[in-house]
């Protein structure tokens, strides 16, 4: 009986690992129909990829808005952080993906989460000149005074890049 149980547990673990592998491949390949199927069968939307990202962060980094939307529908944690502390919001802000940022904000993502460098989504958006995202984050009361590990704020980065419209938004 014990051997049968061990065999059952082993087969179940192999099936789960295989299913998680399919889920990761579907998310990484932006195959939304496969991903929807895998998620609908109960696989976890908060699975971590082989490089340490959440599926949501991986989708945000790839500008894959359809996958971001689907993962949020399946209750992916909008504040999940990778090994460096980056969230999907930070990565969407870095890439300039306004649609993903809107979805993440609607899902309750924390605008003031910091990564290992103490950078926020607002710092990423300001550094890379993404006016629409800076405006959204300001509208959602992102902290404009957060300093990263180098002692710089979003305003400092915007000034350094001469993004005058962002500087103006951040001084209001």
From TrEMBL:
<dbReference type="Pfam" id="PF12796">
    <property type="entry name" value="Ank_2"/>
</dbReference>
<dbReference type="Pfam" id="PF13857">
    <property type="entry name" value="Ank_5"/>
</dbReference>
<keyword id="KW-0732">Signal</keyword>
<keyword id="KW-0040">ANK repeat</keyword>
<feature type="signal peptide">
    <location>
        <begin position="1"/>
        <end position="19"/>
    </location>
</feature>
<keyword id="KW-0677">Repeat</keyword>
<feature type="repeat" description="ANK">
    <location>
        <begin position="84"/>
        <end position="116"/>
    </location>
</feature>
<dbReference type="InterPro" id="IPR036770">
    <property type="entry name" value="Ankyrin_rpt-contain_sf"/>
</dbReference>
<protein>
    <submittedName>
        <fullName>Ankyrin repeat domain-containing protein</fullName>
    </submittedName>
</protein>
<feature type="repeat" description="ANK">
    <location>
        <begin position="117"/>
        <end position="149"/>
    </location>
</feature>
<dbReference type="InterPro" id="IPR002110">
    <property type="entry name" value="Ankyrin_rpt"/>
</dbReference>
<feature type="repeat" description="ANK">
    <location>
        <begin position="51"/>
        <end position="83"/>
    </location>
</feature>
């Amino acid at each position: 009986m014990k051997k049968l149980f061990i065999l059952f547990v082993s087969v179940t673990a192999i099936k789960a690992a295989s299913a998680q592998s399919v889920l990761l491949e579907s998310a990484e390949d932006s195959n939304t129909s496969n991903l929807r199927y895998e998620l609908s069968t109960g696989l976890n939307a908060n699975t971590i990829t082989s490089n340490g990202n959440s599926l949501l962060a991986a989708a945000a980094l790839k500008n894959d808005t359809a996958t971001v939307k689907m993962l949020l529908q399946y209750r992916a944690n909008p504040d999940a952080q990778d090994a460096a502390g980056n969230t999907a919001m930070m990565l969407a802000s870095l890439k300039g993906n306004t649609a993903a940022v809107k979805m993440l904000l609607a899902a309750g993502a924390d605008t003031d989460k910091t990564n290992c460098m103490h950078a926020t989504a607002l710092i990423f958006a300001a550094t890379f000149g993404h006016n629409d995202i800076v405006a959204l984050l300001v509208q959602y009361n992102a902290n404009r005074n957060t300093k990263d590990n180098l002692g710089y704020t979003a305003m400092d980065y915007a000034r350094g890049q001469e993004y005058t419209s962002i500087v103006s938004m951040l001084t209001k």
